[in-house]
Amino acid sequence: MSLLTQEITFRDLEGGDLARLAEWLNRPHLRRSYQFEPTTPEAVAAKYGSYVRGDTPTHSHLALLDEAPFGYLQCYRIAD
To answer: Global pTM?
Structure first.
């Protein structure tokens, strides 16, 4: 399938996504540049759970390629 026929969409991060996010954060390329120390699903739930619940002004999303998650992004005000 050509990339031109694939659809990229976004959806809000959900509680069920946190284990996947923990796995992603432990990948070698993210450990080199973003998540320097190993993390656990519990630590990810503690940090990102507030985004899922809407307790903070940060909006978190998953990027989907033909409905399959492939990336994470945040939207937030720099002042916050």
So the answer is: 0.82
Query: 10 with 73: CB under 8 angstroms?
Result: yes
CB 74 within 8 A of CB 65: no
pLDDT of residue 78: 86
Any domain includes 58 = yes
38: domain CATH number?
3.40.630.30
Number of Cβ atoms within 10 Å of the Cβ of 68: 9
Number of domains in the chain: 1
Compute the distance between CA of residue 54 and CA of residue 31 in angstroms, rounded to an integer.
27
User: CA 45, CA 24: separation in Å to the nearest integer?
Assistant: 13
